[in-house]
Specification:
492 residues; 46% helix; alpha/beta; two-stranded parallel ribbon; 15-stranded mixed sheet; 19 strands
Length: 492
């Protein structure tokens, strides 16, 4: 009897095991097919196939969460519908300002054409562009702008952190709303999760301020909406005439992420007056319409402010998945290839793909003075190790790498030949280049570029250059960690 029971249990176990192996095989095969069905960079595809085959349960769950780039079926339909309406407005802008491009040097025109492709906005002349580099001063200037606002305040940020002068900005917005200024606040659901859990949203709404949560994370809908596609833009518009943009969230650096061990975050912003401000307001209005469920159509275009005599030629440059897909990547690649003398990149997170890496190496080898400035300490250990995996190839090619030690350098900029600057929210990694909704200002002006270069030089005085010879002698275990982290770089 015992023998029969043992045989029965053995056969049942083997049968169940065979079924589990079959289910495992079918699931892995199915998801490999899904991965292959979507044309993507080879490194990304192989990384996902490796993860799904090696850790099938965890790998499949991870792929469902972040493997694709959907923002949800209903939101995708809404974005595409509104993008058709948005395209009519941007086409009018391109026709209206078509003569402005002729004011650019010939070598800059191609980049401007690429940046305005796929429903982008054109270059416009007559802007005043000022660079600000001290976070506390910027927060105080935000408060001053809010106190002087007469008609509208539109604010769009990835993070609104609690505490410090960021709270003072919130109080100023409430005061402005109570005196009749129309205020709208659009914040990313994940980046500003603590803010949304606080009393601020209720206080804002009770004061008449409209608040919208962008890309809300909804448990149970991960299969329809990727959780890590984020609204990473930083836009602050006053009366439709003044816009602030750059790398800085609404945070007080004295209180923000003080437990991360990297020091204060170091940011920079630009304040812009002139016709290009209307382009930023157009992007804000589009984002607001997409993320606000009460709005079904997009037809919002504010008239451009009058140009300033002898002003700066500039161009707003918005990017994101679903619409304007991969344009940001192409602009960055083109800017690197177009550099003739000097190319300087500042970024807190460095994770290029093979195309951008080869472009940087090729630029250095053909004589361009290429400098990469990154923080010495990073709030993401995995990103830090992955970034270091690129150092040796870059330095062998002649790229100079400087590690900033004055805090977490959060400024995101690209300076090309001291004549073109790309400045905004974009990190030099795959998340910004392919996944997030980002915003930049492209400035075609020697004076602004000189100011940005002065800022960059101040960063370099607080940096240590990585010595190629010393780097080649680093411990073997460092190499293993870098190479292991490098395997994840297509997914970061």
């Amino acid at each position: 009897m015992n023998d029969l029971l043992s045989l029965f249990l053995k056969n049942t176990f083997e049968l169940n095991l065979n079924w589990l192996l079959l289910i495992h095989f079918l699931m892995v095969t199915y998801f490999i097919g899904v991965i292959i069905s979507v044309r993507r960079p080879v490194g990304v595809a192989f990384a996902w196939i490796f993860i799904v085959m090696t850790f099938p349960v965890m790998g499949i769950c991870l792929y469902v969460l972040i493997g694709e780039r959907p923002v949800g079926r209903s939101l995708t339909r809404k974005i595409k519908r509104m993008n058709r309406e948005y395209a009519k407005i941007t086409e009018q802008l391109r026709q209206e300002f078509s003569s402005e491009r002729a004011k650019l040097p010939i070598e800059a025109r191609a980049l401007s054409i690429l940046a305005e492709s796929k429903n982008g906005t054109p270059v416009v002349d007559g802007n005043k562009v000022e660079l600000y580099t001290k976070s506390l001063d910027i927060l105080q200037l935000f408060i001053d702008e809010i106190n002087q606002a007469q008609k509208t305040l539109n604010m769009e940020f990835y993070i609104w952190a609690l505490g410090g002068d960021a709270d003072r900005v919130g109080e100023a917005v409430i005061t402005a709303s109570k005196r009749g200024v129309a205020c709208r606040v659009l914040l990313d659901s994940l980046g500003s999760k603590d803010w949304f859990k606080s009393s601020w949203p209720a206080r804002f709404r009770s004061a008449g301020i409209e608040v919208t949560e962008a890309l809300p994370i909804q448990i149970g809908r991960f299969q329809f909406r990727r959780a890590d596609l984020r609204l990473h833009r930083k836009i602050f518009i006053v009366d439709g005439a003044v816009v602030w943009t750059g790398s800085m969230n609404l945070v007080d650096p004295r209180t923000f992420k003080q437990d991360s061990g990297v020091g204060e975050w170091v940011d920079a912003m630009v304040r812009v007056e002139g016709p290009v401000a209307a382009q930023f307001e157009l992007t804000f209005s589009f984002d607001w319409s997409v993320d606000n469920p009460k709005i079904t159509h997009f037809d919002d275009r504010s008239p451009a402010p009058a140009p300033r005599e002898g002003g700066v030629i500039a161009q707003e440059f918005a990017s994101g998945p679903v619409y304007r897909d991969d344009i940001l990547y192409q602009v960055m690649l083109s800017a690197i290839i177009d550099a003739r003398e000097e190319l300087t990149i500042t970024t807190p997170y460095f994770g290029p793909d093979d195309g951008l890496l080869q472009a940087l190496m090729a630029s250095a080898r053909r004589g361009v003075n290429v400098t990469l400035i990154v923080p010495k300490l990073n709030d993401s250990t995995l990103v830090a190790w992955s970034s270091k995996s690129f150092y040796q190839d870059l330095m062998i090619s002649g790229v100079k790498i400087a590690e900033f030690k004055g805090g977490l350098l959060h400024t995101k900029s690209l300076l090309i030949d001291r004549r073109i600057a790309i400045f905004g929210s974009v990190n030099f990694d795959q998340r910004s280049l392919r996944l997030n909704f980002e915003i930049s200002l492209i400035v075609y002006d020697n004076d602004f570029c000189a100011n940005l270069e002065t800022l960059i030089q101040s960063y370099l005085t607080q940096s240590d250059y990585v010595d190629p010879q010393a780097w080649a002698k680093r411990p073997t275990w460092h190499r293993y960690l870098e190479n292991a982290a490098h395997l994840t770089s297509p997914l970061l």
